[in-house]
Amino acid sequence: MDKRIKNTIENLERNGFSVEYFETSKDAKSALLTDIKKNETVGFGGSMTLTNMGVYEDLVAQGNTAYYHGRAKSPEERKNIIKNAATADVYLSSSNAITEDGRLINIDGAGNRLSSMLFGHKRLYIVAGINKVVKNYEEAIIRIKNVTCPQNTDRLDCNTPCRNTGKCANCDSPQRICNATLIMERQMYGAHTIIYLINENLGY
Ligand code: SF4
After folding, report:
1. Whose CA is nearest to atom 4 of ligand 1?
2. What local confidence, expressed as pLDDT, does residue 46 receive?
3. Shortest CA distance to 125 belongs to which of 202, 50, 203?
4. Quick one: three-class SS letters along 137-160?
5. Quick check: 164 and 129 in contact, CB under 8 A?
6. Are 46 and 117 in contact (CB under 8 A)?
7. What is the pLDDT of residues 53-93, one digit of tens each?
8. Structural domains of the chain sorted by starting position, each given as residue range(s) with its CATH number in brackets
9. Helix (H, G, I), strand (E, B) or coil at 106
10. What is the largest CA-CA distance in the chain?
């Protein structure tokens, strides 16, 4: 593990988060599937990291009831899944950025993911590749607005300037996906936050 990642983990732990470090996403997924008990319900925030790791499919296969709006077949079903995810026993998400001083920075358009990071679950798991680690808050915002958002707006077919130029224009688009920014400096009362940091580039 390089010094920068070691330093980040120490700062996250100093800030009250639990951190598990994995060399591969395969190992991380195996630990996650063991840690989540079969009788626990699981909510998902939108995450390419979790999607590409196939976590939802494996949880369902092991018998968990899981709520991931990315698998909805209609807008109505999507709404219901998001509601159920908000009250699930545990919640899974990645983080848009993790700062070396031990904070989690996330930006949402709808807010379901941010609200679940703050409240409503026994445990919050943040699953992230080391590509999400940045120096500080300022770098986190630059990364999210100019790396994460352009790819997400493309994936979600949103008509925003960043989708076309790869750069944030602080737009007024009705389909703007960065409407609220959450800085988690410590874990919230009542929700154990466990960060699975993986030595791979995952998601965006
Ligand atoms: S403000 Fe608009 S242009 Fe900037 S990242 Fe958000 S959606 Fe893209």
Report:
1. 168
2. 94
3. 50
4. HHHHHHHHHHHHHHHHHHHCCCCC
5. no
6. no
7. 999 999 999 999 999 999 999 999 999 999 999 999 999 99
8. 3-142+185-198 (3.40.50.10420)
9. strand
10. 47
CA distance 122 to 105: 21
Residue 145 CA, ligand 1 centroid: distance in Å: 6
Which position has the token pair 């590409």?
52
pLDDT at 1 over 90: no
Residue 36 token pair: 């989540």
With contact defined as beta carbons under 8 Å apart, do 108 and 175 qualify?
no
Element holding 81 (H helix, E strand): helix 75-85
- Backbone torsions φ then ψ of 197, nearest 5 degrees: -100, 125
Token pair for 88: 């699930």
- State the Cα angle at 132 between 38 and 14, rounded to 5°: 75
Find the 1 Cα to ligand 1 centroid distance in Å. 34
**What percent of the chain lies above the pLDDT cut of 70?**
100
Cβ-based burial of 203 (10 A; exposed 0-12, middle 13-18, buried ≥19): buried
Residue 36 CB less than 6 A away from ligand 1: no
Does this model's pTM top 0.85? My answer is: yes
